Amino acid sequence: MDKPRNIAGRKRKIRILVGVSVVLVVGLVTTALSKLKPAAPTVDAGIPWKDTVKRGPMLRQHRGLGTLVPEEILWVPAVTDGRIEKRLVLPGTPVKADTVLMELRNPVLELSVVDAEMAWKSSEADYLALKARLDAVLLDQRSVAATVQGDYQQTKAQFDTDSELAKNGLLPELTLRMDKVKMEGAATRQQIEKERIKVSEESSVAQLAAQKARVEQLRANYQIRKNQLDALRVRAGADGLVQELLVQVGQQVAAGTTLAKVVQPAKLKAELKIAETQAKDILIGQKAEIDTRNGIIMGRVSRIDPSVINGTRTVDVRLEGKLPEGAVPDLSVDGTVEIERLADVLNVGRPVHGQANSTITLFKREDGDYFVRTRVKLGRTSVNTVEILEGLKVGDEVILSDMSAQDGVDRIRLK
């Protein structure tokens, strides 16, 4: 009977040992699994854009889209009110300064020109009639003055003769006195007539000047009206190219209305739209390259618009050298402005979300195909490169693409 009890005891001990062993194994496995890192998500190696950190020169540039625009634009206005009768050219037509672009009609102006001309001609006739009248009056006065002068000469001769006779006692003293009185009266009348002639001459000059001024006023009014009438034949005003006609046949326009736009296609500049955060680095005189998709044109910054519109500022680039084929006004271009050349800086390709003087995270190659998230402090930026201040060293390989899909992980694997 002792032998069966021993067998049962041994079996119970074996079960206990097996149970303890299982518990220990499960514990050890659980502990080991808890220490393992989570599996890194896999990313197709052909998708991310990668670059290697290097040290050396770095060219800082800012880029902006824009258009070619004429340096000089002539806006052709309507000089007077009128209705568009004809359009004689089309946009894109080369023109000379005296080329007629369109014809207007204004019946009221045409009538006013006739009235102004008649008023001017009438004033000229009035001037000639007044001059004739004044000349006649002056001639009459000069005739009277001549008669008075003759009387004076006669009385003076009589007085001189009687004076000789009186000296010899041949003429009474009373007669000599009467001769003297007559001579003095004639002299006085002669002086009065001279002064009257002078006054008449001065009066004639004043009246003629006033009438002449009236003639000139009416002539100028007629010339203004005539010029307005001539301006109904609208001319280009400068050699160039008609870029745009802003009115249609039959349209009534007021004085000052812009009718056409004339440009000089050989004198173009580039207007670039630069982000306001980058425009602060741009200075007048800096070099620039303008890509017309059919050639590169070199230029220099000539103007920076002080105002900000939709987050951008307009930068004008004066072009240097010959324009490539197809360079016309309103052509879309891509411009790059050279800011500065840095001699020796740590730099890498510019990340998708890399802004100047900011801190971002990039995936840096850690071992083999694995990349870990790393904080990186950026400095100055260019179109395609950025300065590295902290977080990376020469030779580090980083992913520059948008990795927002992996925001929840700190480690990825490329395959």
Task: Describe the protein.
The protein is an alpha+beta fold and 415 residues long. The chain folds into 3 domains: 50-69 and 267-414, Elongation Factor Tu (Ef-tu), domain 3, CATH 2.40.30.170; 73-103 and 233-263, OB fold (Dihydrolipoamide Acetyltransferase, E2P), CATH 2.40.50.100; 107-230. 38% of the residues lie in helices and 34% in strands. It contains 4 helices and 21 strands. The protein has helices spanning 2-35, 107-167, 173-230, 276-279, and strands spanning 42-43, 50-52, 54-70, 73-77, 82-87, 94-95, 100-105, 233-235, 240-245, 252-253, 258-263, 268-275, 287-291, 296-304, 312-320, 332-349, 359-367, 370-381, 385-390, 397-399, 411-414. A 6-stranded antiparallel β-barrel has the order 3-12-15-14-13-16. The protein has a 4-stranded antiparallel beta sheet with strand order 4-11-9-6, with no helix packed on it. The chain has a 4-stranded antiparallel beta sheet with strand order 8-7-5-10, with no helix packed on it. Strand 14 and strand 15 form a beta hairpin. Helix 2 (107-167) packs antiparallel against helix 3 (173-230). The protein is rod-shaped and about 210 Å long.
Secondary-structure blueprint of this entry?
Layout: H1 2-35, E1 42-43, E2 50-52, E3 54-70, E4 73-77, E5 82-87, E6 94-95, E7 100-105, H2 107-167, H3 173-230, E8 233-235, E9 240-245, E10 252-253, E11 258-263, E12 268-275, H4 276-279, E13 287-291, E14 296-304, E15 312-320, E16 332-349, E17 359-367, E18 370-381, E19 385-390, E20 397-399, E21 411-414
Parallel strand pairs: 1-21
Antiparallel strand pairs: 2-20, 3-12, 3-16, 4-11, 5-7, 5-10, 6-9, 7-8, 9-11, 12-15, 13-14, 13-16, 14-15, 16-19, 17-18, 18-19, 18-21
Helix pairs in contact: 2-3
